[in-house]
Amino acid sequence: MPPGTTIITITIERGGTDVAGTGMVILEEVVDVAALLLTIAPLSVSAGDFPPAAVAATGQVRYTMFISVNNPLYSYRFFLSGPVVFNGIAAAGTT
Predict the structure, then answer these.
(1) Fewest beta carbons less than 10 Å away: which of 2, 7, 39, 85?
(2) Segments forming the whole domain that contains residue 47
(3) In a domain, 21, yes or no
(4) Does residue 80 sit within a domain?
(5) Would you say residue 1 lies in a domain?
């Protein structure tokens, strides 16, 4: 990445806690944001998963979306304006 590039990473994890990296990553999207773009419009993420039967047998599967910003231009702040939507569907697997 060129110097001064800001990277926004969106991950969705199965299981885990409220801390990023504690679950199984099922989706990761990396967005290279222009330096002059300081406001991020409404965000909508959709994902699908086929958790193993052993995971589904616990009765509830938790999914969490995390958004992180790697901003070398720390004097600029990014604002998320509008709603953030996470839609998903999971179907229990047989493995």
Answers:
(1) 2
(2) 6-90
(3) yes
(4) yes
(5) no
SS3 at position 95: coil
pLDDT of 69-91, one tens digit each? 887 766 667 777 777 888 999 88
If you count DSSP H runs as helices and E runs as strands, how many of each does the chain have, helices first? 1, 7
Is residue 69 helix, strand or coil? strand
Residue 24: closest CA among 54, 62, 53? 62
Q: Is residue 95 part of a domain?
A: no
Q: How many CA atoms lie within 13 A of 91 on its CB side?
A: 2
**In terms of pTM, does the model score above 0.70?**
yes
Give me the residue label for tokens 């969490």.
64
